[in-house]
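If it is no trouble, can you show me the amino acids of a protein and the C-alpha cells describing how it folds?
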Amino acid sequence: MVKRKQSLLERRTELLAELHELDDLVVGSFFERKVNGIKRLCLSRMVGGTQRQIYISIEHGEKVSRGVRQYKRATEILRELGEINLALIKKGDL
C-alpha cells in the first residue's frame, strides 16, 4: 500500500515537472492545405463557439505545430494528474 502511494507521488512529481517544460502551448488544430496551388499552413480553433482558421507563415509553422503538440500533451498530463489525485484522495493520502 505504501509502495503504491509512493509510486503515485513520484509519477505526479514527474508529470508536474514535464508540465512545467511546456511553454509554447497553442490551442487548435494545425494542418496544411493548398490554396490556388500554393501550400498554406492553417491553425483552426474555436472562438466563442465559432470555428476560425488562421493562416500561419511558413517560418512560424514549426513553432505553431510544436505548440499544438504541447497543448495536447498538457491536456493528457492534466487528465493523468486528476486521476492520480483522485486515487490519493480515495486512499486518504492527499
Summary: DSSP finds two helices and three strands in the chain. The chain has a mean pLDDT of 93.
